[in-house]
Inverse folding.
């Protein structure tokens, strides 16, 4: 007996009080409310999908989603009003989540974007009625193979896919956590939670399903690669710092943590691990924002995905991913600034220039907007590089301005239709200004905002990031930026020329009259574009106040 | 708080633009009258500004200042000096004539969609341009100026691309292609210039921390703000590039002939007589005001470019077969004179340049608008398609001659005074440049008189035999402008009185004194 006990004691020790060693995690539910509300609503959405009769699912899902986004936004506002963005900013959920200015600002932006995006998801008046049922942009039955009998039956039965609503909610939940994540594991989980629903949503187009599925597969494969890189980077960073926590890694980078985790004595503090790990991690994030040379997926996915999804993805994913990138660079790797800045300089310059130049040759409006999104990612990177508080606030402002323009622009794309669904080929947009002056004018406003013409939000945002970059000493970057803007202006203008100065084609597309849902989305887009262009001061202040990361 | 007169002067046409655009499709004529009404009301306000302005008072008067975008250091600051007052008056004066001259230019040919309202759009866009031009003359905040300097491109772009001459020698489809080419070229040139300027505006903020002309000037005077020589030069170049595109200065001028050729005559007048003046005005106010040292540094190069503009523009004008292109190249030559006057850095030169901006606006308007009437009658812009018009339409031919003589600076007509001042001002400091520039006048005589001779004299061509003379509306457009040309030619004092004190301020910005012996500017 005693020998057995002796042997046993080789690998166990008797704890004095084994139970009390495991502390119950302390969760600040209030501070995490925005995320929790959205996750909860997503779960409810799944239950609705399971138990509510098919007829009333659409309304039930709409209700759940709208309430969830509105409530979550209200929670964000309440948190900000109570000072969690400034004085009471802190780390919540056992160090997993940061609740601070940038996190709340970005969460607010994501939620509003999602709410507007939701309206375009729910639009059911654009497509002609299928067998007496109003249908949306999503496949009748995602599981049926394109062209199969099962698909035909589903279309005939007038099925509509209400799963998109819980998927959207899950994606948004991931996006809310992504920029707020304060350790690398949370970051990775959030990345997957936001990505997986988006992969699915991309595959759900009602028209041109093969293209949609191709887009989804491309997005998934490349996204999976990027995730793997991110994960590998996380592992290396853990090896380097002995911790997943942002603050702890930052301390090791700064050299302020002397004690070495025994298990990692061989690797800890090894600069090779740090540099490779940071590079891989940042690479994963640059993939999500669509920066060159990690942009290859963008045009195909933007083109193939259902247009409401494209709009939402282009806006909200960019907000979330740039938030996460900012936090990584400003909180985890500020001590490495001299190493990452030159690399990011190169990435920003290449992104701006390639995005602008390749866009010139595009003939499809969605691909064109995709390349425009790439060059905008470059402009935002210019603000990221500033590495100053005004850099943070300018990026926050730009993201808010950009996301509403993007959603609005893609919402307009859904309106221009011919017999094959959306008419996305540019040649079909010829003369749109003569047939539907209002729609063309609205789209022109969005294009001018993309081009950064004064009195639109695009100009205020561009000015903010370039100013931050110039103050941060990146004057050549600003010069490249304005040159890229000039190139980019060319293709935005080309679309305006096409819409207003070309003769309409006899067999050209018609502009569908949308329900109030899409009208709201477009209206909000125009309103934000003009207000942020003419009177940006309040929002600049908001972004300025929100511009400090907690650590 | 006093009545914000400057804001009102700019806001009125803006409101007019919205009101005109909102007129229902069927009420085209109402839209025209509404636009005319608003342009006349704006003229009234501009005259009020002129009256309330005291030439011997502060440098910037009728100032307004409100917080706007504190984060960018931007304030809504307006104020006018004599130069701005003169140009605002010119703008407000010309717009009613432009509206009146373009009365039928935007009547829809075929009925498109019920919501397609080209007429309303045409006049709304003209008023929108007026509002932005006036604001850019008034802004004393660099950022505020920049915003309107850039934003005015958009309505102009639609004016050039969307509305062209009815008659086109190559048919409507070709015309549409050429129009949109001209519009895109216009926009890209100016946008590129503007974006380069944006980089310089950002640079200015980094250096100075705010955009207020007065504050920056004070900071420089007190030594608080000390710009490094190289910084100042780069910023100067950024600003100057944008203004040189707008003005336009050789070799950045190539958008102008296309834009003027393809747009309707009133829009062409709007571009050369009004909008391009923003470029030369901004050189005086911003290049010399903000970067005096760099301006002096760049003077020789700019003078050379200006002289090239003068001679090159005139030479190309001689060789043109298209009436509107000819006037465009003549304008390029005249802009060369204006820029030469500004950078001669003498008070005669700068007074002359400012006066030239006003006079060139009026004389080009006369010439171009009558050319427009002529072209719409014949359905062609080619000089060779005309001949003997003075026998058929004597009033048209006569006023056209006056416009032409004004363009070649005949003594007794307004442009003579300004051209003389510019040449004198240049000669006192840069005699060689002045002498070369004089050849521009000789060439001007050549291209205007040859134009007149080929179109108006000689045997009557069968195509023009039935050409009607000027109608009442057209006479109403031309007559007041011709009177003004003669009046300012004989008695330019009202304008010079307003302008001269402002020029003194600008001269003191660059700390230049006139070379001795002092020649007093014409009073």
């Amino acid at each position: 007996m005693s020998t057995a006990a002796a042997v046993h004691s080789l690998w166990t020790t008797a704890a004095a009080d084994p139970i009390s060693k495991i502390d119950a995690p302390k969760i600040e539910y209030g501070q995490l409310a925005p995320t929790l509300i959205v996750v909860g609503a997503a779960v409810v959405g799944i239950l609705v999908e399971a138990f509510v009769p098919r007829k009333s699912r659409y309304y039930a899902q709409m209700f759940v989603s709208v309430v969830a986004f509105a409530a979550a936004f209200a929670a964000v506002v309440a948190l900000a009003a109570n000072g969690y963005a400034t004085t009471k900013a802190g780390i919540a959920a056992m160090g997993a989540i940061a609740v601070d200015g940038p996190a709340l600002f970005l969460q607010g932006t994501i939620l509003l974007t999602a709410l507007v995006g939701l309206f375009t998801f729910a639009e059911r008046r654009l497509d002609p009625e299928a067998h007496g049922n109003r249908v949306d942009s999503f496949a009748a039955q995602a599981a049926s193979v394109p062209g199969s009998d099962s698909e035909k039956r589903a279309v005939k039965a007038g099925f509509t896919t209400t799963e998109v609503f819980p998927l959207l909610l899950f994606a948004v939940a991931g996006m809310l956590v992504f920029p707020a994540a304060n350790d690398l594991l949370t970051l990775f989980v959030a990345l997957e939670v936001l990505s997986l629903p988006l992969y699915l949503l991309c595959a759900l187009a009602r028209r041109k399903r093969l293209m949609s599925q191709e887009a989804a597969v491309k997005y998934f494969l490349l996204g999976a690669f990027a995730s793997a890189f991110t994960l590998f980077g996380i592992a290396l960073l853990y090896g380097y710092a002995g911790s997943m926590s942002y603050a702890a890694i930052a301390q090791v980078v700064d050299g302020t943590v002397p004690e070495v985790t025994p298990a990692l004595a061989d690797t800890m503090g090894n600069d090779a691990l740090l540099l490779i790990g940071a590079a891989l991690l940042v690479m994963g994030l640059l993939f999500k924002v669509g920066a060159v040379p990690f942009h290859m997926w963008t045009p195909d996915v933007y083109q193939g995905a259902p247009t409401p999804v494209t709009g939402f993805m282009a806006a909200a994913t960019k907000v979330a991913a740039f938030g996460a990138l900012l936090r990584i660079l400003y909180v985890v790797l500020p001590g490495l600034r001299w190493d990452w800045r030159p690399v990011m300089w190169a990435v920003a310059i290449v992104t701006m220039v390639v995005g602008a130049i390749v866009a010139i040759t595009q003939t499809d409006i969605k691909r064109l907007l995709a390349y425009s999104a790439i060059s905008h990612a470059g402009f935002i990177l210019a603000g990221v590089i500033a590495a100053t508080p005004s850099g943070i606030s300018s990026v926050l402002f730009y993201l808010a301005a950009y996301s509403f323009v993007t959603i609005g622009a893609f919402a307009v794309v859904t309106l221009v239709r011919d017999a094959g669904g959306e008419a996305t080929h540019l040649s079909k947009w010829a003369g749109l200004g003569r047939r539907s002056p209002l729609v063309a004018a609205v789209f022109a406003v969005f294009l001018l905002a993309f081009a950064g013409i004064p009195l639109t939000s695009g100009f205020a945002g561009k000015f903010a990031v370039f100013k931050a970059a110039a103050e941060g000493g990146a004057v050549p970057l600003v010069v490249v930026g304005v040159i890229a803007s000039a190139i980019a202006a060319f293709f935005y203008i080309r679309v305006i020329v096409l819409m207003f100065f070309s003769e309409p084609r006899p067999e050209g597309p018609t502009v569908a009259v949308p329900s109030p849902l899409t009208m709201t989305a477009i209206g909000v887009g125009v309103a934000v574009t003009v207000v942020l262009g003419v009177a940006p001061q309040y929002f600049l202040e908001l972004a300025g106040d929100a511009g400090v990361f907690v650590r | 708080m006093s009545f914000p007169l400057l804001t009102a002067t700019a806001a009125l046409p803006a409101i007019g633009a919205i009101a005109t655009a909102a007129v229902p499709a069927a009420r085209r004529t109402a839209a025209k009258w509404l636009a005319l009404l608003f342009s006349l009301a704006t003229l009234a306000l501009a005259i009020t500004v002129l009256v309330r302005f005291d030439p011997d008072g502060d440098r910037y008067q009728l100032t307004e200042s409100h917080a706007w975008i504190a984060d960018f250091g931007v304030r809504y600051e307006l104020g006018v000096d004599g130069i701005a007052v003169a140009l605002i008056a010119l703008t407000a004066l010309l717009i009613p004539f432009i509206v009146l001259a373009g009365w039928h230019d935007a009547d829809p040919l075929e009925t498109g969609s019920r919501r397609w309202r080209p007429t309303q759009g045409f006049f709304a866009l003209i008023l929108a341009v007026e509002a932005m031009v006036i604001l850019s003359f008034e802004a004393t905040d660099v950022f505020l100026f920049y915003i309107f300097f850039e934003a005015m491109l958009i309505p102009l772009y639609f004016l050039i691309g969307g509305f062209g001459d009815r008659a086109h020698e190559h048919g409507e489809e070709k015309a549409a292609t050429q129009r949109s080419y001209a519009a895109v070229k216009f926009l890209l040139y100016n946008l590129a210039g503007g974006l380069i300027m944006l980089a310089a505006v950002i640079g200015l903020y980094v250096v100075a921390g705010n955009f207020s002309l007065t504050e920056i000037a004070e900071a420089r005077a007190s030594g608080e703000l000390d710009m490094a020589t190289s910084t100042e030069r780069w910023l100067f170049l950024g600003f100057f590039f944008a203004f040189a595109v707008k003005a336009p200065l050789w070799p950045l001028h190539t958008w102008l002939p296309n834009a003027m050729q393809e747009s309707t005559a009133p829009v062409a007048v709007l571009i050369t007589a009004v909008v391009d003046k923003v470029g030369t005005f901004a050189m005086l106010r911003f290049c010399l005001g903000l970067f005096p040292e760099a301006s002096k540094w760049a003077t020789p190069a700019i003078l050379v470019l200006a002289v090239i503009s003068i001679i090159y523009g005139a030479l190309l004008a001689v060789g043109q077969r298209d009436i509107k292109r000819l006037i465009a190249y003549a304008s390029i030559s005249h802009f060369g004179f204006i820029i030469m006057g500004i950078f001669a850095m003498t008070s005669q030169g700068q007074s002359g340049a400012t006066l030239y901006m006003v006079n060139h606006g009026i004389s080009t308007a006369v010439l171009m608008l009558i050319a427009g009437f002529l072209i719409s009658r014949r359905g062609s812009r080619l000089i060779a398609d005309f001949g003997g018009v003075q026998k058929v339409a004597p009033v048209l031919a006569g006023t056209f001659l006056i416009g032409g003589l004004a363009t070649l600076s005949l003594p007794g007509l307004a442009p003579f005074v300004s051209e003389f001042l510019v040449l004198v001002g240049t000669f006192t400091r840069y005699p060689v440049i002045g002498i070369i520039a004089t050849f521009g006048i000789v060439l001007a005589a050549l291209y205007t008189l040859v134009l007149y001779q080929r179109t108006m004299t000689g045997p009557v061509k069968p195509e023009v035999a039935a050409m009607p003379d000027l109608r009442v509306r057209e006479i109403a457009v031309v007559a007041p402008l011709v009177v003004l040309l003669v009046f300012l030619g004989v008695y330019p004092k009202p304008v010079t009185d307003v302008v001269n004190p402002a020029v003194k301020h600008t001269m003191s910005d660059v700390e230049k004194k006139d070379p001795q012996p002092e020649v007093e500017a014409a009073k």
Summary: Chain B is about 70% helix and 5% strand. Chain B has one domain: 5-509. Chain B has a mean pLDDT of 84.
